[in-house]
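Slack export, channel: ligand-projects

TW: morning all. Re-posting the request from yesterday since it got buried. We need the structure predicted with the small molecule present, not the apo form. The ligand is uric acid; the SMILES is in the block with the sequence. No rush, but it would help planning for next week.
GE: picking it up
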Amino acid sequence: MTVKLGANRYGKAETRLVHVVKDGPVHHLKDVNVSISLSGDMEAVHLTGDNAAVLPTDTQKNTVYAFARKYGIGQIEVFAQRLATHFVATQEAIRHARVEIEEYGWRRQGPHSFVRDGGEVRTCLIHHDEDGRTTVVSGLKDLVVLNTTGSEFHGFAVDGYTTLEPTTDRILATAVHARWRHAGEPASYGTSYAQVRQALLDAFANTHSRSLQQTLYAMGERTLLTCEGVCEIRLALPNKHHFAVDLSPFGLTNDNEVFYAADRPYGLIEGGVLREDAPDAGFAWE
Ligand SMILES: O=c1[nH]c(=O)c2[nH]c(=O)[nH]c2[nH]1
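GE: finished. pasting the full token output, ligand included:
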């Protein structure tokens, strides 16, 4: 039997970087987590132990810190592209770079004081290859939303194991995990992010839901219709179940007012919405 090397990539994962820009007494804060994956001519290191083509992951980590100092971070999509193009342009053996960044928000509390946002995490995923192709996927995760009514779930398939009661009124809650693909470069990734976030929240709040699947589609559709330049969005929505507690043993009614918030198991609803004319995704989602 003969075997051969399969797909491989390597890089420094989760470089945590906090960057303070000092504008006199007023400071600005960026807090990110950068993960780099490089691939290319890596047969020798795997097959013979020759490290000549391997830019150490330690160097990759140093580059993240040095680039923050030299160029600032700015929009994470731009910082990620700067890193990705650097590795492909400067390392002969590197043919493809994948850079993923998470950004944690801090709200200003004073000129040099901040409060960590408990809310969502902003994300991006960049691919860049030796032919100059670049794809940009922006995103967010852990955006927790809840409607106390306006949600139904009935008419579903039933078999011998079904015990779920149909309902015309329930809590609908989820932690939005969304990633969206840009067809071109927006004027500002920051403005684009704010628009998509608003579209997702508006659609969640304003859709009378017959299922989380229907809400997912409404959120994706609203994003594509209102956010120019976004050609595809993928959503993962955990159904954060809230079960009305049976209070009848205590002689009490419960008209959808007292709930048990279960954390697991949870339904996981996933799906994408894309423009009919969306350009080919290539390696964007990998
Ligand atoms: O919105 C829902 N979609 C489902 O697929 C499902 N399945 C389930 O048990 N509850 C729900 N709710």
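GE: first-pass observations. Helices lie at 43-47, 57-71, 76-90, 189-206, 212-226. The longest strand covers residues 94-110.
TW: perfect, thank you
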